[in-house]
Amino acid sequence: MASEADKAALDIPVETLPAGLELIWLVNPHPGDEKVLSNAIQVLEWQEGEVAIWLAGELDEVLKARSFLRAMPGVTGKRMYISSYWQFGMTEDRHKAEKQKRLSA
C-alpha cells in the first residue's frame, strides 16, 4: 500500500479474529523500497513454540522475509505459506517468469 486509503475493508470485524491473531497493515509510501515488510517482520514479538505463517506480496520483499522466517525457531515449511503475486516494475507475465527463475535457482 502506498497510502492509508489503500487499506482494504475486511469481510469480518477485526474484533472477531481468533485469539492471538493480529492484523497489521503496512503502508509503504515509497513503492519499490523492499525493506518495509522484512524490517517489520524482524521487529515483531513472536510467540514461543510452533507458529503458522501466511505471507503474500511483492517478490523481492517476500524472498527477504522468507529468508528471515525460515531461520526462526518454531517455523516449519508445513506451517508456512509464502508467495509473491507481483513484482515492482514488471508486468504480470514477466513477474511469473522471473519468479519461476529465481525460485528454481
**How confident overall, as mean pLDDT?**
82
Helix percentage: 25-40%
Number of strands: 2
Shape: globular
Gap from first CA to last CA? 29 Å
Q: What characterizes the major β-sheet?
A: 2 strands, parallel
Order of helices and strands: HEHEH
The stretches of 5 or more residues where confidence is low (pLDDT under 50) are: none
**Structural class estimated from helices and strands:** alpha+beta
| Relative strand content | 5-15%
Strand order of the largest sheet: 1-2
**Tally of contiguous helical segments:** 3
In angstroms, what is the radius of gyration? Answer: 15 Å
Explain this structure to me?
The chain is α+β, with helices and mostly antiparallel strands. The chain has a domain at 55-89. Helix content is 30%, strand content 12%. The protein contains 3 helices and 2 strands; from the N terminus they run αβαβα. The protein has a two-stranded parallel ribbon with strand order 1-2. α2 links the parallel β1 and β2 (80-86). α1 (36-42) packs parallel to α2.
